[in-house]
Amino acid sequence: MSMINHLEYMDGMENIGSDIQDKVISQMKSYIPESYSAEDVTSAIESPICTEEDFKALLSPAAEPFLEDIAQKAMRERNKHFGNSVYMFTPLYISNYCENQCVYCGFNCKNTIRRAKLNAEEIEQEMKAIAETGLQEILILTGESRKYSDIKYIGEACKTARKYFRVIGLEVYPVNTDEYRYLHECGADFVTVFQETYDSDSYAQLHLGGHKRVFPYRFNAQERALIGGMRGVGFASLSGLSDFRKDAFAAGLHAHLIQKKYPHAEIAMSCPRLRPSKSPLPVNTVNVTERQLLQIICAYRIFLPYASITISTRECERFRNNAVKIAATKISAGVNVGIGEHSDSADKGDEQFEISDPRSVTQVYSAVEELGMQPVMQEYIYV
Amino acid sequence: MEDKLILGGREFTSRFILGSGKYSLDLIKAAVENAGAQIITLALRRANNGGAANILDYIPEGVTLLPNTSGARNAEEAVRIARLSRELGCGDFVKIEVIRDSKYLLPDNYETVKATEILAKEGFIVLPYMYPDLNIARDLANAGASAVMPLAAPIGSNRGLCTRDFIKILIDEIDLPVIVDAGIGKPSQACEVMEMGAAAVMANTAIATAGNIPEMASAFRLAIEAGRKAFLSGTGKVRETASASSPLTGFLHD
pTM above the 0.90 mark? Predict the structure, then answer.
């Protein structure tokens, strides 16, 4: 079987001619995490403005012994920009059909899992059930299949969501500018796309087929979303797929450069670690420890003090509670990563990955209050 | 005669406008009381249409709401948020915030003037958040603003009076109340702008991120009152050099 060239756009994929990818990739390639010293790290901690070099130092192995100091600095930044607010939301998976072949993912098209797609009525039932928990922000997700979950289907889901929620985010396959514009008109305002890894060689080894294999089309999704009128965009690398320090640096720099080019854009970071799923873990994956994950989250907070940072249910309750206090600002609750699990009437489809924090909205809400923090259900008006 | 702050025909004895963001809702009441505040700002985007923890339920009765249009990126969005605020029963006051920079949160003065013009015509009492620029302040006054709210430093930065000299120009030249907003990190800085002749101070982050929120609200109140009293008393002139008590020209007789 001949493989798709992962650096070439497929037919129908819009090329916006952005230079951000070249900037990010060349900087990432020249970043050698092991070359930073303890002095570089202390200087980064003491500096009032975090430069790109400081960010690199904060992500380096030399920073690990300074994690407490880094966390203290991150918390100061967090408080300055967000006070004690913790934003709450939940993801809703409406379809798990997927045409991609990502070796680490439960939705991999080669996996034999129960596939399901909610119809309009089921989507509404699920949203109603979620809205009854008090949440006002929803993140709509699909597996990446234009065939089973086309743009119109996603748009209709957004229109329904507008009836129940104040904030609608999307985590679906990357699309063209005009399609983002349509989805924005349907009510969505935030788009998150995980690049997974910014190392294009590793990317090619992990994403064997489907449109996701095309690295640059995915990379430029956030920019297309902003051109299409979206208010904010989210970024992430999936830590563990490749050199997680370089990946975290690239994700942070990607977000930084997008904000610089589109100053009005709201920026969000996610910090997922590889989790077990129906797919066996790929051979070259790296175990990222909790300390290392916290280092990444704190480095993001210090480099991008204004950005929203989401802490995934891939992490356990203990880690999530502490992470929102130190550096993260957003937490999901009442999470189901399968299909049709919020209400009883829908078909069930299998999960994308295993979650480690099954707490309900009420439980997370109370836990946030017990931390002395303030749960916030919405901070947004769609205008 | 009692010293009053007059905004859109409404009279206030307190010159401390308190923010309600970044701290727990159940501390709002204590903060308002300790601040002696009669006006509190709130981001309309934080207000619920019912449901869990509505900020509007935590604001003590009798306190005037000053809803802001944060989240607006242009005049049109600010106008829509202001209208929504009125529909939700938040009153006629509105603080215009038009921001299209997510990093520094600096206001867009040009769009702010446009929104002020539209909303003032609709009967709103418009208090625009602005970068301290004399020409824009004049435009805002002509557009019908009831006060101008120049920033001292970027929102939430606690960096103090970075724009001190430009705020002074507005105080000297603009007939509207000048309410210094954003960036004030310490009571001493609030005191200083009041001594300069600012009409009021608006603060949020400095209080929200304090170890003891109600106590810091109280400290700001005292500082603002002290600064106002000093301004009304007429502070002594600051001189470059000492003023000798036995002057060189003291020998002259005619």
Answer: no
